[in-house]
Amino acid sequence: MSFQFEDGKIIGLLGPNGAGKTTTISIISGLLKPDSGKVYVLNKDTEKDIAFIKKHIGVVPQQIALFENLSCLENLIYFGKLQNIPTEQLNKSIEEFLHIFGLEQHAYKQVKHFSGGMKRRANIIASLLHSPSLLILDEPTSGVDVHSRNVILKFLKDYQQKGNSIIYTSHLLEEAEAICEEVLIIDHGKKIVQGNPFELNKIHQVDNLETLFIKLTGTELRD
Ligand SMILES: Nc1ncnc2c1ncn2[C@@H]1O[C@H](COP(=O)(O)OP(=O)(O)OP(=O)(O)O)[C@@H](O)[C@H]1O
Ligand SMILES: [Mg+2]
Q1: Closest to 190 in 3D by CA, of 20, 9, 58
Q2: Host H or E run for residue 138
Q3: Looking at the CA of 171, which ligand is closest?
Q4: Which residues surround ligand 2, an ion (CB under 5 A)?
Q5: What predicted TM-score, i.e. pTM, was given to this entire model?
Q6: What pLDDT is stored for residue 150 in this prediction?
Q7: How far is it, in rounded angstroms, from Cα 87 to Cα 81?
Q8: Measured from the CA of 25, which atom of ligand 1 is nearest?
Q9: Could you write out the DSSP letters of every residue in 64-92?
Q10: What confidence score (pLDDT) does residue 222 get?
Q11: What is the Cα Rg of the chain in Å?
Q12: Which of 26, 53, 57, 85 is the right S-S partner for 90, CB 3.0 to 4.6 Å?
C-alpha cells in the first residue's frame, strides 16, 4: 500500500472490518514495524526519527485506553505527565479541553462511572494535551450518541482550522463524506482508491460515498 497525504487536511481512512485501518495507524504511529517498505510521518523517517514523530502526533486508540479506577482528571494528568508537559501548561490544557468536550462537571468522577460517550471524549482529550500537529483517531465516533458525535466532529473541524492535520477512521460514511477533504479506502490491506469524496463520487458515477464504498469493496461479510 502506498499513499501520501498533504498537511492541513482531514483525511478519512476507510475500509470494512479487518481491512487494515488500525494496523495502518499502528505503523504510522510507530507501534508496529512494517514487514517492508518505508513510512514517513511529518517528513521524518519512522525508522530514524520516531522520537520526534511521537512528540508531534497524537493517537486516539480504537479501544478506550483510560484507567477505570482513576478520575477523569487523574487520567488526564497522568497522560499529560507522560508527555512531559509542564504543570502549569498541562492544567491550562486540561481545563480548556474539559470545557470543549463538556466534561468539566465530571472531572472528579471515576472513569468507570462514565457513559460510553463520556469515555470517548475523555479518550480523545488524553491524546491532545501536547497539542499534536497531526492527530490520528481510530473510530472516535464509534458507539457515541448524536450529541457526543457533534461535539467531536466540531472539535475536529476547529482543530484543523488551527492549521493541524487529522487522519481519522470511521464506519459512518455519511459522516466521513461530510468532514473529510480526502478519503483513502482500503480493503484486505490494499489501497482501493484515494481522493476527494465528491470527485470520487463523480468519477464513479454514484450519489454518495456509501454507494461508492459498496461498489468498490463488495457486499461480502468480513471477519
Ligand atoms: N497482531 C496481529 N497478528 C495477526 N493478525 C492481525 C493482528 N492484528 C490484526 N490482525 C489482522 O489484520 C487484519 C487487519 O486488522 P485491523 O485491526 O487493522 O483492521 P481494521 O480495518 O482496523 O478493522 P476494524 O474496522 O474491525 O477495526 C485483520 O484480518 C486482523 O485479523
Ligand atoms: Mg480497527
Answers
A1: 20
A2: strand 134-138
A3: 1
A4: 21-22, 62
A5: 0.94
A6: 95
A7: 8
A8: 18
A9: --S-TTSBHHHHHHHHHHHTT--HHHHHH
A10: 81
A11: 18
A12: 85
Substitution candidate for ligand 1 out of 1, 23, 33 with most atoms within 8 A of CB: 23
The dihedral of CA 54, 4, 11, 169: what is its sign? negative
Q: Which residues of the chain have pLDDT under 70?
A: none
In whole angstroms, what is the distance from residue 207 CA to residue 202 CA? Answer: 8
The CA 49 to ligand 1 mean position distance, Å, reads 26
**One-letter amino acid of 120:** R
DSSP of 176-215: HHHH-SEEEEEETTEEEEEE-HHHHHHHTT-SSHHHHHHH
The ligand minimizing its distance to the Cα of 13 is: 1
Separation of CA 20 and ligand 2 centre (Å)? 7
Which pLDDT does position 219 carry in this prediction?
Answer: 82
Cell of 22: 488500525
Report the separation in Å between the CA atom of 6 and the middle of ligand 1, taken as the mean of its atom positions.
Answer: 26
Residue count (the chain):
223
Hey, is 117 helix, strand or coil? helix
Task: List domains and CATH numbers for the chain.
Answer: 10-64+71-217 (3.40.50.300)
How far, in Å, is the centroid of ligand 1 from the Cα of 20?
Answer: 5
